[in-house]
Amino acid sequence: LRAARPAPRDGGVTAFVRDYLEAHYAEAVSLEQLAGLVQRHPRHLIEAFRRAYGVPPHTYLLQRRVREAKRLLLGEQAPLAVALSLGFYDQAHFAGTFKRFTGVTPGQFRRGAVT
Fold first, then answer.
1. Does residue 78 surpass a pLDDT of 60?
2. What is the rounded CA–CA span in Å between residue 40 and residue 34?
3. How confident is the model at residue 10 (pLDDT cuts 50, 70, 90)?
4. Backbone torsions φ then ψ of 82, nearest 5 degrees
């Protein structure tokens, strides 16, 4: 008889997913893709990730994109260019997501940072 190989701890799985999201935040990343990478059921991955980081993977990804958007908006890039470079499909999606996480639109953020 062979001993059953223990499953990787969720901490390693969630850290791997977090690191993957950090490295690929500007790309289209699906829950199914993430679950496949770590060989977990999507629902299990969501719950494990939420326990580890307080939010599901998709929310973490959006937060990461917004952090990068703040950095880029302080430069010369137009909001549309920032949106598209970070994987948002249009400026409206970007503006809505940005406002949901920051309380202001990208334009308001930029104007507030300049003044």
1. yes
2. 9
3. low
4. -60, -50
Length of the chain in terms of residues written: 115
Long-range contacts of 100-106 (CB under 8 A, 24+ apart): 101/62, 101/63, 101/66, 102/66, 102/70, 106/69, 106/73, 106/79, 106/82
Question: pTM of the predicted model, to two decimals?
Answer: 0.85
Question: Taking 70 as the threshold, does the pLDDT of residue 1 lie above it?
Answer: no
Domains and CATH numbers, the chain: 10-114 (1.10.10.60)
Residue 9: pLDDT above 50? yes
